[in-house]
Design goal:
The protein has helices spanning about 60-65, 70-75; strands at about 5, 15, 20-25, 30-35, 35-45, 50-55. It is an alpha+beta fold and about 80 residues long. Strands 3-4-5-6 form a four-stranded antiparallel beta sheet. The two termini are about 20 Å apart.
Length: about 80
Amino acid sequence: MSDFFTLTPGQPPAAVAPTSDEYARGDDWVVKHRSGTYILEYWSGELADHLKTVTLSQQDADALRLGKTSVDQLLAAKGVL
């Protein structure tokens, strides 16, 4: 997962441009489209914070991109949370 911003001492955070395979992104998640597959990468929020991945349907990826659902709602519906 790429960084969402870069830090330079004495400067405010600068946003990093999305990569070509990024379909959508939020504060702590990104959906990537690779070879016809949509992959959600997100930080688990556990004590030792892990990067986790979940394969999504195009409908789920579109719902995230358009703001029709949240990552928490989507993961709860998939039984991941």
